[in-house]
Each structure stands twice: as structure tokens, then as C-alpha cells.
Amino acid sequence: MEIEPIETDKHLDIEIEIENENEEDKEQQQNHKQKKKQKQNNKEKKLKEKPLLIDIEGLKVPFPFPYVYPEQYQYMKSLKRSLERGGIVLLEMPTGTGKTVSLYSIILAFMCHSNKFNKLVYCTRTIPELEKSLEELKVVIEGWQYHYEKGNLNMSVNDLPSKMICTGLSSRRNLCIHNTVSTEKNPMTLDSMCRGLTCQANRIRHLKDETVSNCPYYEKFLEIEELGELLETTNNYDPMDLQQASILSPGVYTLEDLRKVGAELGICPYYLARSSLVVSSVVVHSYQYVLDPKISNIVIGENLDREKCIVVFDEAHNLDSVCLEALSMNLDSSTLTDGIQLIKTLQEYVEQKKMISKKLLEKEYDFLVNKFASNQGYTTKDDLPVTVSDELKQNPVLSQDVIEECVPGSIRKSEHFLSNLSRFSTYLSTITNVKEVFQQAPWEFRQEMLSKTQIAEYPMRFYPDRLMILFKTLEITNLNEYMSLILITNLAALLTTYDRGFLVIIEPLEKSVGSFSDCVFQFVCLDPSICFKPVTEFKSVVITSGTLSPLSFYPKILGFTPVASHSFPMSVSRNCLCPLIVTKGSDQSAISTKFDVRNDPSCVRNYGSLLVVMCKIVPDGIVCFFPSYNYMESIVSIWIDSGVINSILEHKLLFIETQDPIETSTALQNYKYSCDCGRAAVLFCVARGKVSEGVDFDNHYGRCIILFGVPYPYTEDTVIKARMLYYLDKFEINETDFLNFDAMRISAQCAGRVLRSKDDYGVVIFADNRFNRKQRKNKLPKWILQFLHQGSVNISVDVCRGIAKNFFSEMSVRIPKEKQIGVSLLSENELKNLN
Predict the structure, then answer these.
(1) Residue ranges of the Helicase ATP-binding domain (predicted)?
(2) Which of the two residues, 13 and 108, has the higher pLDDT score?
(3) What Å distances lie between residue 449 and 282, 453, 491, CA to CA?
(4) What is the Cα 343 distance to its own chain's centre?
(5) Which among 8, 50, 107, 478 is most buried, taking Cβ atoms within 10 Å?
(6) Residue 384: which pLDDT band, with cuts at 50, 70 and 90?
(7) Rounded CA separation 77/105 (Å)
(8) Nearest alpha carbon to residue 317 among 558, 76, 77
(9) Per-residue CA distances from 48 to 40, 434, 769 (Å)
């Protein structure tokens, strides 16, 4: 079981720049825009028919379509009961069955007919999912408007969802409309350019000299003082009461809508979205805005009444991984070396400031004598919120008692702070030079550091905030250049804030002859429940996805007791999904990617034979998932020599995902173009990669999914080993159980790419004899298991070919809608009978 570890740098963004908004998201947004018109036309056509008004246990729920799936009805019924009780609910909904529409329909109905909740925070993984979610919300609200105009709703027009403000929130890169800044491709550089134009020092320079560039959109935003003053003084607010103060009128605003409004009004869409958070009844944004303590305070806010708020985590099958990543950090040797050099640069700046403006440094020191919670002095309006205390509370992961304390005297003066930071950075650089893996508990690491450097741990908690204040004093806005130093200060705060559930790991990265080229310092979170704990403060939390099985794992590792857990099967008029477990080749020899047999000639040959056979009978696109990049590269090399690739190219084109995001984006675009042209193609991907998580292969883009092997994580990884030991100790989950759970949820996620609606269909081939074992097979979701039968498991390549060929022959005949009603579609009459 060999998987290339997927590493991402953490805490690279100072405010609310989210790392998963990357280059692949841009390509997905383009595809999303191309489909939006077609989907909107289909939805408008459906709305011309009479939308349903569903009675769910006495609650009238306007539903935007004339039919509802049985699983949608049961889903909304379960969710209503959970909202009434409060607490956390786990709901697994079959993929492609209208989960988002169901969520919005029942939650808006509950909010409008009850004063129990006044805000919905909807969390998605990617930008395309965010945009798609808001488009679905628009359709749901149109259904409400229809029923109101027909007199079916006994309520005031002001109580309708159409009178709510519903906004999306993202980073500057996705919202900026400045002519120069918006053209910058590097998100960190764009962020620095924005800060440079909007900081108070630059604005003052512009007032004195008009040739100095500023941001007119930000200046226009600052002219609206009434909103800023209201937000500063309001406590225990009701969003509906504050909407009169909002720049935005009631409605649903996607990121594209925000950019349009910003351009029309001449106002910065980024700050417009942030200022609208407090008045919005529905907010849609990334997971990290709720889970990452570095940014959650600034987004969620202290004034938000958690007793009246619903939080939804959509596509939440990797929720535990997001929690772990939010509190983990990696620093390599080059980052530490760069940080030490940057400290020297800052020390020179401080000396220059002493000569030019000593009063500025004295003012900074006076501010630091006061408590962080104080709003006196040293406030600026170069960012929102305008008070220093609010800005400090977003950095990085300080507990409330720390935030309210004074900055320690040892780091109040700039030169003393930089001296402390230099000693800490030098110590990290010295110890991050090992030839073997070194592990230590955080408290042990701090004790050893204290004995060798005399650095007290208490001041280290304030390093990130102290550095931000110093940047303001020195008028430094190009924070991208100081990212190494920012990472070091964030690491210092984490090291001195957390103990149990964390581990310090120093590990060599690459080994050459007799030496190591680099080492990495890792502060690793082993317990996802630590990050998830603040979420439990909300009155109601919905964790939902198409691949949450087995549901019992998530409460254990996230540390909560659910009020309900449900997994819904798929209602079908025909078996639109054909899952097959292929365990042997045509020669009856076993196939598997298990390490000791994966390179066996017969195994590689049979895998190639399976793919060639499917290329001959599958009418459109085929997507193949491999357990790692290394294995995919090795097997492709063998297939080239053996002629398998040439056989594939006789029937379809071939595209391959790489570790380069631009190359992958191009390959994916060309793959879909080939399918659109009728040429059809095969796409080689890696499980746990970008394609397996964030890309849909609906209709002809994915008529067949093949999983070559069980996608286990790389079990020799030091972090994975440490995490398994911790899970066994705290959660009593042994290594085998968790690895099977993790591998099967990834497998189910890959399989779900093939089915994106009730009208869609496809074959999913689990090509490994290990899939046939009960301990793995039973961890698949119900909506996959319901299509597995005795004749579709433990089969050979030849049997697989016959079953798949018959399946596609059956799917070529569409079932009329009349025959679906009462089976996979419920009309108004069927709903009355149910009630």
C-alpha cells in the first residue's frame, strides 16, 4: 500500500485566504459557467410546472420542482426532527439526488415559520461548490415566491426568504475588480498588492500626493460610515433588523453577483462581502472559515448568537482531515533560514525608524502596555474590523484568556521582540538537522528549548500578534515577502497553546549518498476533535455527504454524540448504477495492488486486459483511479512496453493527471472536450488527488469508473503511524479498522463521480480481490450496496465484460416519467397518500 503523501503548507494566509481555492478551481469554475445556463434553463422549465408545497409533519415546505424523490422527502423529514431537537446530525444522502435543494428547502421553511433560528452558515469545500450551492438557493427561493403569489403561504411578504440577504464569501483573488490587482495570478502577491493600496499609510500618502495609487473601490466602501458604526456598537443582533443598514438589498449573491454589484456601485466586492456577514441570513463559504481558529473569529464573530444559528457541512466525508490540517504546520529548513534573514531585515528597519520617527515606536509601545481587549489607541481603518482588538483575535489560535492579557514586557519593545524571535528561529534551524526521525511531545520540546535558550514559553503565544503590530508600525504591506517569518510566529503560538493530541516531529525529507538534503519540522495535530469542539457550541449542526459510511466513525473521532444518524438508499425506476467487484483476470489469477503482488506480470497484464475490454464496450468516457502516482507511472510504463496503451488508443484518447495543477487542468479540459466531440477518452487519475474529490463526471464524461486497487494511505508515513497510535489510545480504533474506513470512503468518493443525477448511469469497477472482503465491502454507502448482488462480486474480467455490456444495452432505453412516478418520483398525490 503505497501512496504519495499529499502535503500542503498551512497558515499561509493572514486573513481569510483559503488554500484550497487554487488553480484547479479556476478550471472548475469555467466548466460550471458553461453548464449554468443549461441547468438554469432546465430549472426554469420545471418551475413553469406547479412546484410542490410539501407538508412535513405540519411544516409547510415550498419545494421548487413538481416532483420530489422519496429519499429527498425522508431526508427533509429527518432534518426537520433534528432541527427541532438541536444538536449534531449525520445524514448520508445518495449522490445526485438533490441534497442541496432539500437542505435549503427544509431549513428556510424552519427559519421562516419559527423564531428558533435566524442564520444559516453553509460550508462547502471548493469555489465551484459554493457557486453551485447559491444557484440552487436562488431556485429554492423562486419556489417560495411562486407559492406566495398563488396565496398558498399564510405569511407576510417581509417574512419570505426573498427578503433575506444571502451571500457567498471568498478570498480577494475571487472577488477583486481592481484593474491592476485583479490581473495578478499569484494569490499571495495579489493579497499583498491589495494591502499595499488599502493600508492607512498609503491612503495618507495619496491624500498628500495624488500620483500615489490607491484603491477607489475601497475608498468608496469606507464612505459608508453608518454601516461601520452600527457594526461596532451592535450586540445580540437579529440579522433581519440590521438589513436596512446593509449596502446590499435582499437577494442571493454569488461571487459573480458580488463582483457585478461592486462594479456598478464602485465598491470593493471583497469588503462588501465581509461587511455583509453580520446582516446576512444565509452565508456560504469554505470549511476553514468555521474550523480554522486562525480565521474563524473574524468570520463567525463574537456577536453571532450560536443558539440561533444552523451550521451545515456539505460533502463532509473529509471533515476530520480538514480539522487535523487546520491545527498542523510544517516548516522546512529553507523556510527557517529565510525567516532568520527576514528578522535581520526587520531589525534594520527598526533602527532606521528610531532615527526617523522615534515617536511612532513609542506609540506602539504604549499601546502594548494596555490589554489586547482594549480599543484605545493605535487603531486604523486599513482593514475590517477597524479595531485592533478584533484584528488580533483572528491571529492565530489564542484562547480567550490569552487574548485578554497584556503583551508580556519582554516583547513590548520592537528590538526585544525581534531578539526573542531570532533566538527561537535559530534554535528551530539548529535542531531541524537530523538523519533519523525525531518525535517529542510539545511540553517536552518546550522544556528542552527553555533549558538551552532561556526562551520563556508565555511570550511566544503573542508572537503572531506582535509581528502584525510591528508590520503596521513599519508600514509593511507586502506580507507575501515575510511569509516565512509569519509561519514561524504561528508555529510558536501553536507550540505554546496545545499539548495533548499534538506531536512534534522532525524528519529528513530526502536521502542522498551519506547525507540528507533537507529536513522538515512538523507540528502535528493527532486529534480532530480539538478543532471541531467549538462547532459543538452551535444550536444545530448538519454533517452531510454521499459518502459518510460507516456513520459510527465520525462521532468517535470528532468527539460528539449525534442526535440522529441516517443513511438513505436510492430510489430508482431502473438500476442506474452497476457496481462490480472484479477479483481475478481471464486466467483466473488474483488481481490486487497489494505491495507484494502489484508488480506481478499476471496482475499487471490482467489489469491492462480489463481496461482494454472496457474501452471496447463503454460508449463514452472512462475514469481510472490508481492508489498513488508512483504506481500509476510504473504501470503505465509497463503497459507502454506491452502494447496495452496502443490498444487503448485504438478506441479512445488517453489523458493523465499529474502532480502539476496546470498540467492536470489542461488534461481534464481536453478529456472533456474529447467526450463532447464524440471521440471519447480515458482519464488516468490518483485517488486522494484533486480529480477524485472536486470534479464531477456526469453523463458522457464518466460512463465507467475503474478503481485499480484499494486506495490506502501510505502506512509507512511517520504522521500516519503516530495518528494510528493516538486513535488506538483515545478512541479505541485499531489501525486496521481506521485504514479500511479511510480507504473505503475514498473509494466511495471516486465511485460517486459517475452518478450525478437520477437520469445518469454508469459502471463502477472495484478491481482488487481485497474489495470482496466483508470488512471493506460493508463500509460502502447503502446507495452502492443496494446494487451489489451475488452475481456482481468476486467475478473475473470476462464476466465483468458480459455484465457491463448488458448494462449499457439496458440503459440505452429511457424510462418515461409516467412510469417513474410513485417509484423514484413523488407527485402531490403520492405525498398526500404518504401523509
Answers:
(1) 58-362
(2) 108
(3) 47, 6, 14
(4) 33
(5) 107
(6) very low
(7) 11
(8) 558
(9) 12, 68, 50
